[in-house]
Design brief:
- The complex is a heterodimer of chains A (163) and B (582).
- In chain A, a hairpin with a 5-residue loop joins strand 2 and strand 3.
- Chain A has 163 residues and is α+β, with helices and mostly antiparallel strands.
- Chain A is built from 4 helices and 9 strands; from the N terminus they run βαββαββαββαββ.
- By secondary structure, chain B is an alpha/beta fold.
- Chain B is 37% helix and 16% strand.
- Chain B is built from 21 helices and 22 strands.
- The longest helix of chain B is centred in the middle third of the chain and has 18 residues.
- The chains are: A alpha+beta (163), B alpha/beta (582).
- Chains A and B meet through helix 1, helix 2 and strand 4 of A and strand 6 of B.
Chain lengths: 163, 582
Amino acid sequence: MRHIISVLMENEPGALSRVVGLFSQRGYNIESLNVAPTEDSSLSRLTLTTVGDERTIEQITKQLNKLIDVVKLVDLTEGAHIERELMLVKVRATGAQRAEIKRCTDIFRGQIIDVGTSVYTLQITGTADKLDAFLEAVGDAAVLEVVRSGVSGVARGEKVLSL
Amino acid sequence: MEMLSGGEMVARALEDEGVEFIFGYPGGTVLHIYDALFQSGKVPHILVRHEQAATHAADGYARATGKTGVVLVTSGPGATNAITGIATAYMDSIPMVVLSGQVQSHLIGDDAFQETDMVGISRPIVKHSFLVKKTEDIPSTIKKAFYLASSGRPGPVVVDIPKDITNPTDKYEYIYPEKVKLRSYTPANRGHAGQIKKAVQLLLNAKRPVIYSGGGVVQGGGSELLTALARELNYPVTNTLMGLGGYPGTDRQFLGMLGMHGTYEANNAMHHSDVILAIGARFDDRVTNTPNKFCPTAKIIHIDIDPTTIAKTIDVDIPIVGPVESVLSDMLKQVKDRCAKTPALPDREALQSWWQQIDEWRENHGIYHSPRYDLDSGFIKPQQAIETLYRVTEGNAFVTSDVGQHQMFAAQYYRFNQPRRWINSGGLGTMGFGLPAAMGVKLAFPDADVACVTGEGSIQMCIQELSTCTQYKVPVKIINLNNGYLGMVKQWQDMQYSGRYAQSVYEDSLPDFIKLAEAYGHVGIKVEKLDDLEDAMKEAFSLKDRLVFMDIYVDRHEHVYPMHIAPNGSMRDMWLSKTERS
């Protein structure tokens, strides 16, 4: 099953490499990863998606917790949560295609953020599934470049991941 | 206010930490530190002949004393040479602080002379590591390193120090912190009371119990409590390779080691048990054999300081995360209370028939019941060499070992009654560990007998340390079980490769170890006949202030038994001899 694990860790050089290294060293998968500082400049928040059976996910969370740089973590998929991913897509847009792509982008509540004579750059946000669906709708032929941020997530309601 | 240079801070911090020995090797990037150590002269430094030996010596020191071993190496090759020893300490959870020099800060990343990314290269094999950026951070970083290395589940910590921050002319205020706290690091200091209660309930109602204890009991200072608990309950105890000495080896309740080369009675008791109390052990693949065939009828209680070891390979019924000492003390108290209130617990009748079964296993195939090797071969059997060592040292020696058949024979036939006496590379299986580890032990316990059980293969991996032993007068005894083969490799080749000895034979290439020992100023004793063995061994140990290299010619074709049948075997599936299976 797919899990979203969100990690608060020390904003120190080398901390990220310990997390990434752990995954390769122990043969765990990382499907996506994103990391950035938080409102507390001494902390970074890292969110990763991974796939594994219950035992593997339990080991992953334990092993992450064991890293000295990891302060706290939560498996968001254990409870109600919201996840978003941001995608920038550069597509070929000429002739009748221009209107069609515009319509499709509107349907997915995306935006055209750059316009060229034969190219649009689109921004779409949503769950990973939604982004996949958009790419399918636009079709491989039109897509020139795809940049995805990796999943970010947060628990629903009062629950927060903080110190 | 005291103003010190970075180099002086390192020297001073080690002194303030109460470090007894530094094992190391100088080089360009650590020269400022070495000069500061030289000038202060407070902490003795042992100059090894290869950085790998520095880590093993610090490791041996740590295993024998329980204190943190300290290593100081230079950047580049000095650092990479230390890697094997760091990995060895990591796999066996040994407290160690490794200080490595690094090229000057402004050169980092430029492929400077003797530059290597030590923090990167050691990352998967350390508990934690630091690259110190500022001179002012040296004292607190060293304090953190010692705290991390020795607390929770111990392990090696690397502190990488660029040369420029140790510059003798740049002085800063030196304050060595009394204590450090890390917000992200809070090892458990007690076990969960509810879990302990459940565990005691299960334990007391067992009909075929086994206590399976590992290195965590030795390192966590849990031996006395384990012994008290086992005796209170009259339950059988088996130890892992790392756990030997955690329970008295000659005690009636002791079943011997378990696992791949464990005893028949230990492996069978595990397989047929209904309750296993696992303490400070990690269900290593060398213990469990095939995981899905592991102890099919057992409910498992697992006590460990490290949550990641719990349910990693084998599911457990009652996990308890906490230091073995505190958990065992809580358990023992509850067991006593419960037994006093309910005299019917534990079930004595069930226990009696369990012991009867165990004694039957012992009689049939136990290595302590009667010799299971050929007594009339005309050769010195390696088992006999270890038994002789045991007799001559009256079971009181510190025994280090290398890796291979000799290691297993030592584990089986030297019966350790005390913790911290058996010092071997269990997890990583590092050949070359034995001699430097013995140096570390002997330096810590100069009056004790320290024997390095080795083979002609392993000893050559760190044999240069004979020179270190000369320089610092470290009179360890080397017990070389010489069979002219890489014995364990050969055993597997005999069993699985139809006796094709691919690269496991030395032919005529072995040195004359006696002359070699003598060349370094030591004593060499060659033993070729069984009749000479005991007297030669006595002579070796009577030479208290000399290093003696005993080159013992043993049966070239002996195998280590019992041996788990793998793959696809269970705990009870064993080879008992070259022809006999369980």
